[in-house]
Amino acid sequence: MSLLPPISMNNGTPRNLTVYSGAIALAGLLLTQVIATAPAAAEPSPAMTSEPELFSATDRLGAAVFDSQTTPIDEKTPLMLAQPRTEVVQAAPFPSPPPAIEPPELPESPEAEARFGDRGDDRWYIQGAAATHIDNQENGQFGMVGAGISHFFVARHSINGELNSFYFSQNGDDAVGLNLAVLIRSHLVRQPNWSLYIDGGAGVLGSTDDVPSDGSPFNFTPQAGIGATVGLENNRRLMVGVRWHHISNANTFDDNPGRDSIMGYVGLNLPR
């Protein structure tokens, strides 16, 4: 069913054709005016056309890195994947530990230092002596110069070996002699700077003439006495003492007059 009214004919010409033509022309004129007076379409704003700020900087950086490290693609060149740029970062050297600080050395206490006369203490000494007889048989004196070594086999007690030279002034011919002796010495009182001791021993004596003058050139020399040491610098000690000193051949010869003397001596005792 047509919505348009039927076209009537008038003298062979549709009567409504003129009306239709006029309506179409009027509609076209109105459309033209509407189009001419309509405002121009707004251009898209930069915010709408530009890339989001979040991606613009990173995309440009990626594109620059990609373009600088790839080969342009053409028909003869295979596609090259972008190689990431790597940089070797040298790690900072690990700091070396500070040097160890050694504690200062503390001075040793007097108790920690080795004491004179401790077990194992080894020493030596030089000495000089003078003696006079204590009997009335004859007038006789002698002098002695010698040296000795000491070893403390237990604390305060030492064994000593001595080598001494003698000069005898006596009735008749004077004599020179050489003496080897062994003594035991015990420091009964021992203090850091001094000590008191007793000692005793014996030895053998050979001389250039008879001693005493009516005796023999070979004798034994038993002796015993007391003494003291006084501390000096550098662990040295001054020795002073007095002894009973006996000379006798123990009846190994026909005559054995013997001689008893009081001998005083002084010496210097040093560490070995």
Describe the structure.
It is a single chain. The chain is of the alpha+beta class and 272 residues long. It is built from three helices and eleven strands. A hairpin with a 2-residue loop joins strand 4 and strand 5. The radius of gyration is 67 Å and the shape is rod-shaped. The termini are far apart.
Structural class: alpha+beta
Stated plainly, the CATH topology of the domain at 122-271 is called: Porin
Question: In which order are the strands of the major sheet placed?
Answer: 3-4-5-6-7-9-10-11
Largest sheet: 8 strands, antiparallel, barrel
Named CATH architecture of the domain at 122-271: Beta Barrel
Descriptive tags:
two-stranded antiparallel sheet; 272 residues; 11 strands; 43% strand; eight-stranded antiparallel β-barrel; rod-shaped; alpha+beta; 3 helices; Porin
